[in-house]
Amino acid sequence: MFLKFPVLCLIFHCAYCISHHPILIIVSYDAFKYNFFDTKLVPHMETLKKQGTYADYLLNVFPTKTFPNHHSIATGLYPETHGVLGNTYYDPKTKQVEHIGPQMFRYSNNVVPIWRLNEDQGNGRYSGSMMWPGAYYPYQGKNITYRQDFDDNMDWYKRIDTVISWVTDRKKPANLVMLYIEQPDTYGHIFGANAPQFKDMLRKLDNITKYLQDQLESHHIADKVNVVHLSDHGLITITPQTFINITQYMKGGTYTWAGATPCIQITPHKGHEEEIYTALKDASIKNGHFKVYKKQDFPKQWHYKNNPRSAPILVMADVGWGLDDMIEASKKYAKIFNFTLTNSSEFGVHGYDTSVADMHPYFMARGPKIKKQHKVSPFHTVDLFNLFTELLELPQMPNNGTLGNIVDILNDNKQGRYNVGSVVMVTVGGIVAGLFIIALITVIVLLIIKHRQNLTTVAALNKRFPQTFQNHIESQHLLDAEYA
After folding, report:
1. Engineered SS bond to 305: which of 13, 90, 298, 431, CB 3.0-4.6 Å?
2. Would you indicate the residue range of the signal peptide (predicted)?
3. Which of 317, 349, 381 is the last residue of a domain?
4. Residue 346, helix vs strand vs coil
């Protein structure tokens, strides 16, 4: 009985083992398109969406691929500035095609992602990354406190539990965590967005969203944590009838290929620049379903050409069309997942211009610093960095976003770094900690007194009776009648 009170105090105290700074969890579901809510397969997400602030969609960056967009979300910069120009790209410095790794994200020390900015402020600020693209690697020569590299075998629920453990860590509680889940992108590529497997994946994402909220509530921190749910891009379905073979127009050994449908980066070998461009340009006119751009002609709104990593030539398939890589990818998917490949087989792709509605991701947020039951106009992915710095109360950094685009998301009542809620939380936490220590001392004292009483009881009985009572419970029972 005496142990119940300190145990309850300990549980209550642990609810306040969180950062005294504003807390933010950013959750990304890869390729979750803005209108997947219309499927009616994500009721929990729909409920949470309407409880906080949401936009109909986000305007992401070109190319609408995973790595460029996640890094723009994290930095507030366009790809031509942060240097991640695709899921793969040809690097003129290394003279090879680069895939995900430190080389891809280590473009410039002037690029400071939100997790690095947060932790650099010190004073008990700690960042965590649960598989967020690029966050596993050091920036400015430093790694963040918590980081989990990509592992698609790691159970989603374990990912959430780990994130919660970082936020509630008693010694180094994270006040910023970036959480990435690779679905529904993976199943979208393999089966297309109309397949039952894809729809089942949407249901699973809905359930994991509810699980995150449940864990926040069970740890009594739901009202103290700001949560932003978003995605990097949408998805569109295409079939093999729309695959275009562009390699037939170029001579083998005269170029380097990087990227994937629908935008392919072509780097001609020296002396073959005009030859390759002319061949592709003529083919695009005859075919009518893809376009070819020289670097100097990349559309301004792409914010894509002012970088040495930008390819000299870009081939862009029209919306709903794919290129050579899909010819091989479709065969691989059919073999691995044991289905028959036909002209009507569906596959998901993304990477088209940001003006294409099917490429648009979603956005919703909730928490103590975010307006409730509120809708805002669509805004840009690069604006998110400013939202994060405002929520975390970090200094502003130069970026390509616009602060004015996100202010309507924030609560009207401006909360300082040490707002009333934070002061109350810390004060209550201190009081509870003090009560716990007092209760613990009290229990120890009572146990000592009770132990001494038991020794006295045994001694008294051994004096009155010939046998020796070593068991204090038995001896106490014999004396009960006398004390009644």
Report:
1. 298
2. 1-17
3. 349
4. coil
Residue in the structure block whose two tokens are 């569109």? 236
- Give CA separation, 351 vs 33, 214, 261, 345, 347, in Å: 13, 34, 7, 20, 14
Q: Over the stretch 231-272, which tens digit does the pLDDT of each residue have? A: 999 999 999 999 999 999 999 999 999 999 999 999 999 999
Residue 2 belongs to some domain of the structure = no
406 and 432 share one domain: no
Q: Are residues 155 and 262 in the same domain?
A: no
pLDDT per residue as tens digits for the range 371-418: 999 999 999 999 999 999 999 999 999 999 999 999 999 997 644 343
- Per the rule left: phi > 0, alpha: psi between -120 and 50, beta: everything else, 403 is alpha
pTM for this entry: 0.84
Return the closest-CA partner of residue 268 out of 256, 280, 258: 256
Give pLDDT tens digits for 1-48: 444 444 444 444 445 579 999 999 999 999 999 999 999 999 999 999
Strands, DSSP E only, in 163-262?
A: 176-181, 225-230, 236-238, 255-260
Tokens representing 228?
């932003």
Q: Are 67 and 31 in contact (CB under 8 A)?
A: no
User: Does residue 14 form part of some domain?
Assistant: no
